[in-house]
Design a protein that fits this description.
Layout lengths: L5 E7 L10 H16 L6 E5 L3 H4 L5 H9 L5 E5 L5 H14 L5 E8 L7 H8 L14 H15 L8 H11 L13 H6 L2 E3 L2 E2 L9 E8 L12 E10 L14 H14 L8 E3 L5 H11 L7 H6 L16 H4 L7 H13 L13 E8 L4 E9 L1
Parallel strand pairs: 2-3, 2-4, 9-10
Antiparallel strand pairs: 1-7, 1-8, 4-7, 5-6, 8-11, 10-11
C-alpha cells in the first residue's frame, strides 16, 4: 500500500525581472525558504522543474548544478521538462518516489529565468513547446495560437467580445494581497476595454507577463511530518495526461482532453468529487485557457466557463475561487516553475497562511498546469489532515 505524501514546507521568490540574480541563486533562495518552513527535514532527492534554461541561459544539467550550489554532494538529482506543465510533473514524480517508499523526503524546485534573453530569442524558445515541423516553422507563436483559440471560442459560443475580462479582473484583484506578485494593482473593466491588442482578440490583459522566479516544496512521508499546531497538507491525488501536440490535429481545438483526463485521474485517486474542491489554481497564461480549463475539469459546461468569471463565482469568497494569489496573469508567468508556485499557494490556503489572499474555510484545493496549447497536463489535489 502506498504511503501518504505530505508537503512539509514551501518557499517562493517574488516574481519579477531579476536582472542581477542568476538562475541558481533564485533556485537556492526558494529551496532555503522551503527548508526553513519545513523545520529539520532534509531532502534525499532533488527534482528540478524548468523549461527554458538550455535555450535562454545556455545551461542544462540543472539537477547537478543546483545540488552542488545548495551544498548537497552526492544527492540524486534530475530535471523534469514538460513545457508549462514541468512544475506539476516534477511534483508528481517526487510524490510517486515517496509514496513507493523509495525515499522519505524529496525537494522539488521550479525555476525560470527569462530575462537572460529578449526579443526573437525568447519567442523562438517559447515556440519550441509547439510542433516544430508544422507550427513553429511557420512562425506560429504561443500568443497567436491563443488568439486563434479565443476568436474561435467567442464565435462558436456566441460570447461577447469582453467575455473573458472577468479572469483578468479577478487575477489582478487577488494579486493585490500577494507580496510575491509582479503586478499588485487591481484593474477595472474600463482598463480592460482600453487595453491595446497583442494579437487580436487577445489584448494586453489577456496575456500573462513572462518573468523570473523560483518556488520550492519539500515533500515527505509520514515519518518526517513535524510542525505541530500547523495543519498538515497532504497530496491526496495526482494525474497526468497528454494530447496531440499540434492544435490542428485535435478533433476539437476548444476542448483540452489532457486537462480533462488528468483532472479525472487526480480526483479519482484522491476520492474527491469536483463539488468538494474549494479553490482551483488553473493555467492562465492566456485568459482563453482559464475558460477552457474550467470546462475541461468539469466546473462548467462547454462554452460556459467565461460566465463563472462574469458572475463572481471565481472571487476569493465565490463558489470556485481561482488564481487566488493572482495566477500567471498578475503574479507573473514563470513557465516551467508555474506548477510549483500553484501547489505552494494551495498549501498556504489550506493552512490558513494566505494572508490577504485567503479563501475562507479552504480544505481541499486543486492545481493544474498545462504544457503548450494543452498537449500535456498535470493535476494535483491537496487536502489538510
Amino acid at each position: 500500500m502506498a504511503q501518504p505524501v505530505y508537503l512539509l514546507g514551501v518557499g517562493m521568490t517574488p516574481v519579477a525581472e531579476h536582472w542581477e540574480t542568476s538562475l541558481r541563486e533564485l533556485a537556492l533562495q526558494a529551496m532555503r525558504a522551503a527548508l526553513a518552513d519545513a523545520g529539520e527535514a532534509r531532502p534525499q532527492v532533488l527534482f528540478v522543474a524548468n523549461l527554458l534554461s538550455p535555450m535562454l541561459s545556455s545551461q542544462a544539467h540543472l539537477g547537478a548544478l543546483l545540488a552542488d550550489f545548495a551544498g548537497w554532494p552526492g544527492i540524486e538529482a534530475l530535471t523534469v521538462e514538460a513545457a508549462g506543465a514541468s512544475g506539476g510533473m516534477a511534483l508528481r514524480q517526487a510524490s510517486l518516489a515517496i509514496a513507493s517508499g523509495a525515499v522519505e523526503t524529496a525537494m522539488v524546485v521550479g525555476v525560470e529565468k527569462v530575462t537572460d534573453r529578449v526579443g526573437t530569442g525568447l519567442d523562438a524558445a517559447l515556440a519550441a513547446t509547439s510542433d516544430a515541423d508544422y507550427e513553429a516553422v511557420h512562425g506560429l507563436t504561443a500568443t497567436a495560437q491563443a488568439a486563434m483559440l479565443m476568436r474561435r471560442y467567442l464565435h462558436e459560443h456566441r460570447a461577447p467580445g469582453d467575455a473573458l475580462a472577468g479572469f483578468s479582473l479577478a487575477a489582478h484583484r487577488h494579486a493585490v494581497g500577494n507580496p510575491n506578485a509582479m503586478f499588485r494593482r487591481a484593474i477595472t473593466a474600463e482598463d480592460y476595454e482600453k487595453a491595446g491588442m497583442v494579437a487580436d482578440p487577445v489584448n494586453l490583459y489577456d496575456a500573462a507577463p513572462l518573468a523570473d522566479g523560483a518556488a520550492a516544496i519539500l515533500l515527505g512521508g509520514p515519518s518526517v511530518v513535524r510542525l505541530p499546531g500547523r495543519p498538515h497538507v497532504r497530496l491526496l491525488g495526482s494525474g497526468a495526461a497528454t494530447a496531440r501536440l499540434a492544435v490542428h490535429d485535435l478533433d476539437d481545438p476548444l476542448f483540452l482532453p489532457a486537462a480533462a483526463a488528468s483532472a479525472k485521474r487526480a480526483l479519482a485517486q484522491a476520492g474527491v468529487a469536483i463539488e468538494e474542491i474549494d479553490l482551483f489554481e488553473l493555467h492562465d497564461s492566456f485568459s482563453i485557457y482559464a475558460a477552457l480549463a474550467l470546462e475541461a475539469a468539469g466546473f462548467a459546461g462547454r462554452g460556459q466557463g467565461w460566465q463563472l468569471a462574469r458572475d463572481g463565482a471565481i472571487a476569493l469568497d465565490g463558489r470556485i475561487p481561482l488564481m487566488t494569489f493572482g495566477g500567471s496573469k498578475a503574479r507573473g508567468d514563470v513557465g516551467g516553475a508555474t506548477g510549483v508556485y500553484q501547489a505552494a499557494e494551495v498549501a498556504l490556503q489550506l493552512q490558513g497562511r494566505a494572508g490577504a489572499c485567503q479563501v475562507p474555510g479552504a480544505r481541499i484545493g486543486m492545481a493544474q498546469c498545462i504544457g503548450g496549447a494543452g498537449a500535456t497536463a498535470c493535476t494535483l489535489i491537496l487536502g489538510v489532515s
